[in-house]
């Protein structure tokens, strides 16, 4: 019994030691794990400067490319435009009151928006009329009797248009028939024309009196000479034609000497011829004049009063009114990238953003060369010239409305939308973002192939739908299907073949 008890106790004591050893090993393992965890955490929290700098760099960018395409570009082109007439004229009378005072508006028979006919009175300034006649030449001088030139021929045609014929005068010469027609026209609108010469009538009367005196002197001289040449009562001759009395033997007969009377008659005839020439000159210079300040020539009628800037009783300071003539058209300016998309015959929508009214039209012309707006001028379908004055530059585009535009649109800014604009056939096109300009001024696209990039110089053409036509300077340098750089996107490297 005692041996069994001893063995059991020894076994119990041995088990307790094993347990203690196991616990000790487990503690060591746990401590090792804890130490490892602390070390790992410390390693993550503590970085070297090089590692910190590397970790702060952005991710490598990815290259965005797009394919070169061959197709037709189609788009609408929208530009600003100005409604204008074939001709616009500012009426700015320069003449003052007859006594030299400041010019004042004394009658204003027309108003803004009114239609005008040829020969109509526009305004009266200090009692003198300003009227409109048909003509293309601007009035640059006063027209007086005896004047010659194309402006005189224009006046003759204009007077004939309003019913006052100048037939009988040579075309382009201000003669007697033109004087009579101009006088009758002034009388028809209720005025007397200004005389070409301040003392014209008096000069004519004086010249006529001089002719009368000269004619009488000729009559008296010739009468005296005739009396001296008549045979005497004793049958002797008074003398031959040269005023020298001769006998049968050539000696003097004692008859009166007529040489002095002959000289007197000859001089009287010369004086009469001179007086008649002066009368012709004075009469030609006398008569009505057309001052440049009293007429406005417009290319066609009916014309329109666009604006009136004065009132009755107001002093004339600058423009009194603005007129326009001819059909209304719309002028717009195209930029280089728009010019190739617009061609004559294309339909256009015209929108007045002021009134909300719209109209349709078509392109009638596009300038071949650029210019500033005040220089740009392209004839419209009616032969006018719609020059703009805002100083912008571009290619002038003229749009003719399908129907006549209301007169109150003259001078308004409108929006022009050219429909179905396109390139002529297929063309190489790339996105607009693929175009870049280098420091050397060349326009290029960057071709990307197998992570290799190279620039290709190009000339850009028409644009539309976010694309632009390109033509490589070197034939074959750019082909359909090649990929061009359009941008760079930050993020994980995706390779050179990444698309938009």
TrEMBL record:
Keyword Repeat: no
Domain Peptidoglycan binding-like: 149-185
Compositional bias annotation for Acidic residues: 239-249
UniProt keyword list: Membrane, Transmembrane, Transmembrane helix
Organism: Streptomyces fragilis
Record's keyword annotation contains Transmembrane helix: yes
Transmembrane segments: 24-46
Pfam families (UniProt xref): PG_binding_1
Protein name (record): Peptidoglycan-binding protein
Region (Disordered): 197-270, 361-388
InterPro entries: Peptidoglycan-bd-like, PGBD-like_sf, PGBDSf
SUPFAM superfamilies according to UniProt: PGBD-like (SSF47090)
